[in-house]
């Protein structure tokens, strides 16, 4: 994938996106690159971007949502919104486009904001869906997400079976909803909401614990190194302190997994004990 960036003062030569250490432009990924220029380009106007259509099958198609260019000297951001396919067989068949700089109105458009927020919410924020659509850049692994899902599942089963008798004893009144042989009343709905809330609390705490774990080996990316090179030591120390205050040491991962094992183990024990107490007929219901 190649591009040419144009500004008021100058235009770059043809540049190619590349990283020798990892695979770039994976599905759902956000990639960062550093570009050096001999002199300032001034205020950016547009970017011309294209690919060589060299992939096999669907690999030759590329969907670009947006690009953000940041001037590391002024820290000013320039947004280029695409939301288009670069593919011969899709939309208008173009594999090359010129993207003008986005205005403030375009950056606030509902379709752009909704697409950006909704995709992030599902791919990284939704606990179940993110197992399959996890962004490559996050440190919250699929194994950790799956573990949190198991904790949520078993705690929900445990709380539901503990409150089973209470929900059945709730009296049916005129406000009940009936669907053939299935009845539900306000008391049962309240019990269900309470059970869901109590099931979510431990799983959400575990999710935050996993998300805030620091890497065992702190590797500074080239982009971070470039930012550090233009910042004062005071700014760097302040930024590091803020980051450390929001994260946990890497060895907290053992505490997180221990809590998961304890919660799942206790839930299984109570589920089995309660099932034996109910008997076969009641358990099958």
Automatic annotation (TrEMBL):
GO annotation (BP), single: detection of mechanical stimulus
Keyword flag Oxidoreductase: no
Keyword Membrane: yes
Superkingdom, natural source: Eukaryota
PLAT domain boundaries: 1-100
Residue stretches spanning the membrane: 143-164, 189-210, 250-273
Gene Ontology CC annotation, any one: membrane
Protein name: PLAT domain-containing protein
Organism listed in the record: Adineta steineri
